[in-house]
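Incident log, structure service

09:12 report received: a user says their structure output differs between two submissions of the same chain.
09:20 pulled the input from the user's history:
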Amino acid sequence: MLLSAVIFLPLIGAIIIALTRTIVNASAIKGIALAIALLTFIVSLSLYTGFDETTHFMQFKVQNSWIPELGISYQLGIDGISLWLVLLTTFLTPICVLAAWGSIDKGASGFMISLLMLETGMLGVFCALDLFLFFVFWESMLIPMYLLIGVWGGTRRIYATVKFVLYTMAGSALMLVGILYLYFQNDNSFDLLTLYDKAGTLPHQRLLFLAFFVAFAIKVPLFPFHTWLPDAHVEAPTVGSVILAGVLLKMGTYGILRFCIPLFPEGTVAFTPLISTLAVVGIIYGALVAMVQPDLKKLVAYSSVSHLGFVVLGLFALNSQGVQGGIIQMVNHGLSTGALFLLVGMIYERRHTRMIADFGGLAKCMPIFATIFLIVTLSSIGLPGLNGFVGEFMILLGSFISGAFSKVYAVFAATGVILAAVYMLWMFQRVMFGKLDKPENQSLKDLNLREIIVLLPILLFIVWIGVYPKPFLSRIEKSVNHVLKQHTKAMAAIGESQNAVVVDAGLKGERE
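09:34 re-ran on a clean worker, output below:
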């Protein structure tokens, strides 16, 4: 029941706010939302303390019949792959509530209801072990995200929101077809765990792989499916950008690792060269486009295209180093890029502009802001000792050792690290250093206590993962190794089946 409590506590909080919004003020509504989000995070810590890192099996399982006539069950569970994504979600949500405290007054109840409903949807995606239940959670998060951007976003919010929803629903339609096909192949059951055992015998693997992969690639977003992301980020409110970059994009990479790789091994092997190429193109393309952006928020948005390209490259290295690096980099990106969006939002609230040219010399009047911005910037470019280095190093190592041609991928991907240092440090230099010669900037106030409290927990984990990543990696290792072992086993079964077909054809030819 622990997983159910973690998933549905935010929904209960949203219902409480909906019932009390007419009798309490905006501050009380924010207080309720913060209390529920903090309670959810505290309860979710039991997943960490009670997690058994010595096994790959699903833990904290819940399984109840939901619609037995259709083979649909309420089935939940987590392993090392999903643990940190669940904790990342519950960690970032109270930070987002606190970050929105000073900027969201009009419609505060609707905003907090949407945010808490979104948390329930995201947590459900990471915990569902029934394909139908997974799809319900996957689709349910669209509505609150649509509202967060469409109601509280910028001037082009409707365009950005419609584009985001259309892209996502197009991918979802393909995935639904794949889910229905698997349902009939799985004896009219949506049980994911039983499907794993049949992975080597499932027909039409390449088509099924593509049906799922396109949906996840749009969500990542992998080049060339990325075009919805900059618009959504730029028009979203600060909190919307943090959740979008910190958690929603990880639903795509999580789906690849949870569904595409273990369920469709033949499709995975067939499309790995193409996907790895797209990942490397995304790494370099995202970095180059970020480099020329005049808008701080758009620069950070395009950096996500580059960073998520690293994650996809690590997953398709198909070895322990690459996949573990990909998972830890999902967490790292959520922390670092989430913090960058928070920082951009804080400076926007003061100056009501995000243009890099409108700043300069801010370190003189905002030293605390500049210091935190520098730490997060260095984390984003992978400085040793900070979290970004751990993930990027493991991804490049995994890619380099996965095969002869993969060394080429690793070399080109490494240029993304260099380009990241160029666009991030150049951006920091233009915003923070130089002359403080614009009158609008000279009177800017440094971060207040609330803003420092918002950022400090993220800084703690940025340093912790960078200095001592073992507690994070140790809980991932067994699950990753099991997925890779199952992938190898399924490929062997496919190979034996194909050999048998060849032998039968040969014997038939001899008899004729």
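09:41 both user submissions now match this output. Likely a transient worker issue. Closing.
09:42 reviewer note: The longest strand covers residues 59-67. The mean pLDDT is 88.
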